[in-house]
Design brief:
The complex is a heterodimer of chains A (612) and B (254). Chain A folds into five domains: 32 residues, no CATH class; 97 residues, Immunoglobulin-like; 151 residues; 111 residues, Immunoglobulin-like; 111 residues. In chain A, helix 8 packs antiparallel against helix 9 and helix 11 runs antiparallel to helix 12. In chain A, the strands form ten sheets. In chain A, strands 10, 12, 14, 15 and 16 form a five-stranded antiparallel beta sheet that branches. Helix content of chain A is 26%, strand content 34%. Chain A is built from twelve helices and 31 strands. With 254 residues, chain B is α+β, with helices and mostly antiparallel strands. Chain B has three domains: 100 residues, Tetratricopeptide repeat domain (Serine Threonine Protein Phosphatase 5, Tetratricopeptide repeat, Alpha Horseshoe), CATH 1.25.40; 64 residues; 63 residues, Roll (SH3 type barrels). A five-stranded antiparallel beta sheet of chain B has the order 6-5-4-1-7. Chain B has a two-stranded antiparallel sheet with strand order 2-3. The longest helix of chain B is centred in the N-terminal third of the chain and has 32 residues. The radius of gyration of chain B is 23 Å and the shape is flat. The termini of chain B are far apart. Chains A and B meet through helix 1, helix 2, strand 25 and helix 7 of A and helix 1, helix 3, helix 5, helix 6 and helix 7 of B.
């Protein structure tokens, strides 16, 4: 890129305005595309469903971002779990100018026995980076024997699938709403597509927070003696009160089309049935799923950690802080990442009471989820803390407590203290933190309120349109462009002159003539006959020498006949020049002339010059 | 002597206006300190409408709104202050704090947008223009003194890259500030629908303080997005729509 840039800047061809525009376009294009090479690589593994019934299929998606993997990881053999390759896809997206590319590899997992299957850690190498995914759990349950399952004669039915009957308050749960349409239904595809395009929440419940709804791939399922095509909508929700929780579904009336058994005979003139439509019988079916009842358990009241702030799920924590060598009053950015599974939107950092020696600002948060429901991923907190005293030696340990519904117990994650070097600095106490006046015990928790109002008005400004929309500013930008264009024009003229001696002589002679005419007028006015005619001869020699490409000293009256006449100069001009030469010669012998007589010669000379 | 008189006559009204603004600002601050947040909002808004504004006016207006429970209007005021002093840590802290109080879906700025917002559009423009000026003047010098070309080659190359980079940033800042419209929800709860009719199906719900990108508008409705997959229509009067360098409409004018 550097080579191409230097070419466009220094290549003579590219010095034209068009070339420069092209070069700038190259630069800007290169800069816009540069971030694509700077993206960090990532490798994630997700299951479209975490709980399936025996015989059903879950899709495992391995997603590689930021480059191509050196080789695709091989899935290990898991007993009672059939793994089939489901193809791969590439995806390139540009959203708000941000470019991203990814490769996805899909696998269909079909269990043959109930139980819990663990997809182990998978490793891949992308762009020299060794990456791995956390283990995934797939729960397989026995097929239920509800009325809907046994009713294999139904054309279509809905079903709610809840992975667990007991959940904790605040725990996130993925509830499946399944749409079964029997094979043979003529408009089965239209029905399933309409549910795929449904953007709302199909689950109805009170006392829950509903987060997102995602769609999975269609699948086939056998219920009773019939085969069904199944579309599944998965909704993530979290109960907010304890006790029994009833989950229902939306009620929909579908128009189901069944082909008639006695179709008309095939038209002999339309053997491929282009113009003959299958005759169907339409039936309207009002559907809703049978409600499911869960029990929402309260969080245990025993062994609640001190810093617990309501987080429920399974998390891991990492922490980094920098810079670690600062002056008192300088900011240190603490980056805390909570990864795992849970309700990330409501996840907050607990108050860190040990940070009383720091001024803290509210953390900036970012959530990156790896599944469609937004339940798995990482939440990053970037918290700016400002050490207030040079006595501080470390950023105290950070703790985060949560309730783990899998282990049915509270867990506390702790990251050790980060050593800090705090140099004395010219720190003025911040207006909102009065650390000196308070003891450590009654210090306020970090970022509990907004920073107080400004006491002074400060610099008053007049808000106007930005500089880019002001005419004077835009006009001002023409100055360097004009300066550069002037320099280019000047350089070209100088080069042209240097490479063309005749042109250079013509310009020199024109200058000599302009100067000489002034001298002639001065000599005529002063009645200096000798100087006048000497100048006149010199000027004629210079002008004719330039025109005939001869040295000025070689020009005499004889040149008129020898050189000018063959060139086709008009006779009147030749006569005028001859007369001027003769007047000059005559003046050598009779130099006394009046000023008027001398001045009268100048127009004749100018006329002869014009005709040359 | 005459020019001195003219100068005094010209500057006197400005000085009087500034003194008046400072007195109004102090009075508004007193109202805030006394806990009369609604009155303080009115006083700060009056100052903002006078045209003589400072970052402190919008900052304090944001605080007054926040204290009176209007998170959306507080965020709009903080964003206005950010156009004047984008690197004020107190302002960034309050804006972040207010954003954290807004529940539900909202469009949080990306890291790139946050980085870009460290400078105002005018600052980006001046930086880019300065780099382009230097680059072109250097090219002009090379035309004037071609012998300097080998010595200055690297400088020209570096300046070209810097100028192009700054121009790209300036363009991106222009796009963010002038051509991206943001709607901030200013009522406790607003319903985003799939269509622009009151009977259209519910898409999702947003709350006071939610920042949404405006995609389109139709009559009294605006089409907004709160991120991938969250697109819908919302009544315009439930939001403050900020466009480019426009300052937020005050309560009295909305």
């Amino acid at each position: 890129m550097r080579r191409s840039l230097s070419w466009v800047l220094f290549n003579p061809r590219s010095r034209s305005p068009a070339g420069l525009r092209l070069s700038l376009a190259f630069i800007i294009l290169g800069l816009w595309s540069a971030p694509t090479f700077l993206l960090a690589a990532s490798f994630t593994a997700t299951l479209d469903r975490e709980t399936v019934m025996v015989g059903e299929t879950a899709v495992l998606t391995l997603k590689f971002e930021g480059g191509q993997p050196k080789s695709f990881p091989t899935l290990p053999t898991v007993p009672n779990l059939q793994i089939a390759g489901g193809g791969s896809s590439q995806n390139i997206t540009i959203v708000n100018g941000e470019y991203s590319a990814s490769i996805s590899q899909n696998y269909a997992l079909t269990p043959s026995q109930p139980g819990e299957f663990i997809i182990p850690v998978l490793k891949a190498e992308i762009g020299g980076q060794a990456l791995q995914t956390p283990p995934l759990k797939l729960t397989v349950v026995k097929p239920s024997s509800t009325a809907a399952d046994s009713a294999g004669d139904k054309l279509a039915f809905f079903k709610l699938f809840v992975p667990r009957k007991e959940v904790y308050v605040g725990e996130v749960l993925a509830v499946e709403f399944q749409v079964y349409v029997r094979e043979g239904v003529a408009n089965a595809e239209n029905i399933l597509q309409s549910f795929d395009q449904y953007g709302g929440c199909p689950v109805k419940a009170e006392g829950v927070s509903i987060f997102k709804t995602a769609h999975t791939q269609w699948r086939r399922s056998r219920v009773g003696n019939a085969n069904y095509n199944v579309a599944t909508l998965i909704t993530s929700l979290s109960p907010i009160k304890t006790g029994p929780l009833s989950l229902g579904s939306m009620e929909v009336t579908l128009t189901v089309q069944m082909p008639l058994r006695n179709q008309p005979r095939r038209d002999p003139y339309d053997p491929f049935s282009f113009f003959q439509r299958t005759q169907v019988e339409e039936r309207r079916v009002a559907l809703s799923a049978e409600p499911e009842t869960l029990t929402v358990l309260p969080l245990p009241k025993e062994n609640v950690p001190a810093g617990f702030n309501g987080a429920v799920g399974t998390f891991t924590m990492t922490l980094s802080a920098g810079p670690t060598n600062v002056a008192a009053g300088d900011p240190v950015t603490v980056k805390i990442q909570l990864s795992g599974r849970g309700a990330f939107d409501s996840l907050t950092l607990p108050e860190q009471s040990a940070w009383h020696d720091f001024k803290t600002y509210p953390p900036a948060t970012k959530v990156e989820t790896t599944d469609a429901l937004g339940l798995q991923g990482t939440k990053t907190f970037e918290q700016v803390v400002v050490p207030q005293s040079p006595d501080i030696k470390a950023l105290p340990a950070v703790s985060f407590s949560f309730f783990d519904p899998d282990q049915k117990s509270y867990r506390t994650l702790t990251q050790p203290a980060v050593p800090l070097i705090v140099r004395p600095g010219g720190l003025a106490p911040a207006p909102t933190v009065a650390t000196a006046a308070r003891s450590a015990s009654d210090n306020p928790p970090p970022a509990q309120d907004i920073v107080h109002i400004k006491p002074r008005l400060g610099a008053v400004v007049q808000i106007g349109p930005p500089l880019m929309e002001r005419n004077w500013f835009l006009a001002l930008q023409a100055v360097p462009v004009l300066a550069w264009l002037s320099a280019v024009t000047w350089r070209r003229r100088a080069d042209q002159l240097a490479n063309n001696p005749r042109l250079r002589r013509r310009r020199q002679v024109a200058q000599i003539i302009r100067q000489g005419l002034l001298e002639l007028r001065q000599h005529a006015a002063a009645n200096q006959s000798d100087d006048f005619f000497a100048t006149l001869v010199r000027l004629m020699q210079e002008q004719l020498g330039e025109r005939l490409d001869l040295p000025a000293s070689a020009i005499t009256e004889a040149v008129i006949e020898e050189r000018l006449r063959p060139c086709g100069v008009p006779e009147a001009t030749l006569a005028s020049l001859r007369e001027l030469f003769q007047t000059c010669n005559f003046a050598r012998y009779a130099p006394i002339k009046t000023s008027q007589e001398l001045a009268a010669i100048i127009p004749k000379f100018e006329a002869a010059l014009r005709e040359l | 002597m005459r020019w001195l008189s003219c100068l005094v006559i010209t500057l006197l009204p400005l000085y009087a206006q500034a003194a008046l603004s400072a007195a109004g600002f102090d009075a508004a601050n007193r109202l805030y300190e006394e806990g009369k947040f609604a009155e303080a909002v009115s006083a700060y808004e009056k100052l903002a409408q006078s045209g003589q504004v400072s970052a402190a006016v919008y900052f304090n207006l944001g605080n007054a709104y926040f204290k009176s429970g209007q998170i959306g209007r507080a965020i709009a005021a903080y964003r206005a202050a950010q156009q004047i002093t984008p690197r004020d840590p107190d302002l960034r802290a309050n804006l972040q704090f207010a954003r954290n109080q807004a529940p539900g879906p909202t469009l949080s700025p990306s890291r790139w947008q946050r980085w870009l917002a460290r400078l105002t559009l005018n600052e980006w423009t001046l930086l880019a223009a300065g780099a382009v000026w230097l680059w072109l003047l250097l090219l002009a010098i090379l035309q004037w003194r071609p012998a300097l070309r080998p010595a200055l080659r690297n400088y020209v190359f570096s300046l070209a890259v810097i100028a192009a980079l700054l121009c790209a940033c300036d363009g991106a800042a222009l796009r963010e500030t002038r051509f991206t419209r943001t709607a901030i929800v200013v009522i406790p709860e607003a319903t985003v629908r799939y269509g622009w009719l009151p009977e259209s199906r519910l898409a999702f719900t947003v709350h006071d303080g939610a920042e949404l990108q405006v995609l389109d508008q139709k009559d009294e409705w605006i089409q907004v997005t709160a991120g991938p997959g969250r697109i819908g229509w919302l009544r315009r009067d439930q939001t403050l729509v900020l466009s480019g360098n426009d300052l937020p409409p005050t309560k009295g004018s909305s």
